[in-house]
Write a structure and sequence with these properties.
There is one protein chain. This protein is of the alpha/beta class. The chain is built from 14 helices and 15 strands. The strands form 3 sheets. It has a 7-stranded mixed beta sheet with strand order 12-11-7-10-9-8-15. It has a 6-stranded parallel beta sheet with strand order 3-2-1-4-5-6, sandwiched between helices. Strands 13-14 form a two-stranded antiparallel sheet. A hairpin with a 4-residue loop joins strand 9 and strand 10. Helix 4 runs parallel beside helix 5, helix 5 runs antiparallel to helix 13 and helix 9 crosses helix 13. The longest helix has 20 residues. The structure holds nicotinamide-adenine-dinucleotide. The site of nicotinamide-adenine-dinucleotide (NAD) has 22 residues, from helix 1.
Length: 339
């Protein structure tokens, strides 16, 4: 296969981002159709501007199209497992946004369908493709700093999402920290086996209405004996704060934020520099392109995808364990929720 013909399921915020990247920046990719039940004139005009004229309200049009090789699932999380099953049954390769699903039963069914069909499934854990986090990973994985002892992930959004988003998000662990659970596994090169979660509401009272918190810390124990900590805030007023640190036997490796620009002004009063870039579209734009390039390459070359269904399921299990830990105020083993 020289070209991968792609159908997009869900054409909202992240769907349009992937559509733009697939059209402009991913060699071998050809976006040929989009489907979204709430497609309006604006969305159709956007698709047309990318050269896509097959715009549907019924997602079945994508699954039934014999000329489509792969789908991008960019619809709300609740639809992911069903769409994975239907794409697999139609023999299409699958890129699925995080999280893979909200219930274990649905996730297991989806993973079975993928295995049976023999199609590729890549999960949208985009941060693994960020140049800073990847460098930290590569240094740790090279072994030159020795064994990893402590993994620290700081992940703070610039501002809280709208209440309507919070109402259906699945909560801070499933919606937001899920990226950081994956990042911690990726950096440690080991599974997380136990978590202890703390949470509080400091930013907006509406989070509590949905049994959610806006500020959280989760402590981690890894299978290889390393320990870790993740901190999340829904509102860092200075911008998107995304940092990783791995302390090892022979040293430490950490990264920093991408700043709006790299200028530094030094005066008698002090030294100032720019703030971090605003949010994920700015910070991770190149990473979104890189993950799509790897997905398309894996299909063309017949190689493994870099982030698979197992990674998707593990992050969900850890999120479930973190919520249980917060609710029950005790450490929870990940195996407790894997039933
Ligand atoms: N990787 C990341 O950093 C990242 C960032 C944002 C969102 N996401 C994930 O992407 C998914 C979508 O999030 P979003 O922010 O783009 O949301 P969004 O609400 O902006 O877009 C979702 C789109 O899906 C459409 N839709 C609803 N039901 C559908 C159906 N049955 N079939 C097809 N389309 C349907 C909606 O009309 C909407 O246009 C979520 O699972 C979210 O967790 C990932």
């Amino acid at each position: 296969m020289k070209e991968v013909r792609i159908g997009m399921l869900g054409f909202g915020r992240i769907g349009r981002l992937h559509a733009t990247n697939l059209t402009r920046s991913v060699p071998g990719a050809k976006l040929v159709a989009v489907a979204d039940p709430y497609l309006n004139d604006d969305a159709v005009a956007f698709a047309n501007s990318l050269g896509v004229d097959r715009c549907f309200k019924d997602e079945a049009e994508i699954f039934n199209a014999s000329d489509i090789d792969a789908v991008f699932i960019c619809s709300p999380t609740g639809t992911h497992p069903d769409f994975i099953c239907r794409a697999a049954a139609a023999g299409k390769h699958i890129f699925c946004e995080k999280p893979i699903g909200l219930t274990l039963e649905e996730i297991n069914t989806a993973l079975e369908a993928v295995k049976k069909a023999g199609v590729k499934l890549q999960l949208g854990f985009v941060r693994r493709f960020d140049h800073n986090h990847k460098k930290v990973h590569d240094v740790v994985a090279s072994g030159k700093l020795g064994e990893a002892h402590v993994i620290k992930v700081c992940s703070r959004d610039p501002e809280e999402p709208p209440e309507a988003y919070v109402a259906v998000s699945g909560g801070i662990f499933m919606d937001m920290m899920i990226h950081d659970f994956d990042m911690a596994r990726y950096q440690a090169g080991s599974e997380i086996v136990e978590v202890m979660a703390y949470g509080t509401n400091k930013i907006n009272p509406f989070f509590a209405k949905y049994d959610d918190v806006d500020t959280a810390i989760v402590m981690l124990k890894f299978e290889n004996g390393a320990i870790g900590v993740i901190d999340n805030s829904r509102a860092a007023r200075y911008g998107y704060d995304q940092r990783v640190e791995v302390h090892c036997d022979k040293g430490c490796v950490q990264d920093g934020n991408d700043l709006i620009d790299m200028s530094m002004i030094s005066t008698a009063d002090g030294v100032t520099c720019e703030k971090p870039t605003w949010f994920f579209l700015e910070r991770y734009n190149n990473a979104f392109i890189a993950e799509s390039i790897d997905f398309v390459r894996a299909i063309i070359d017949g190689t493994d995808v870099p982030v698979d269904g197992h990674d998707g399921k593990m992050a969900v299990l850890i999120a479930m364990a973190a919520k249980k830990s917060l609710d029950e105020n005790r450490p929870v083993k990940v195996s407790e929720v894997d039933v």
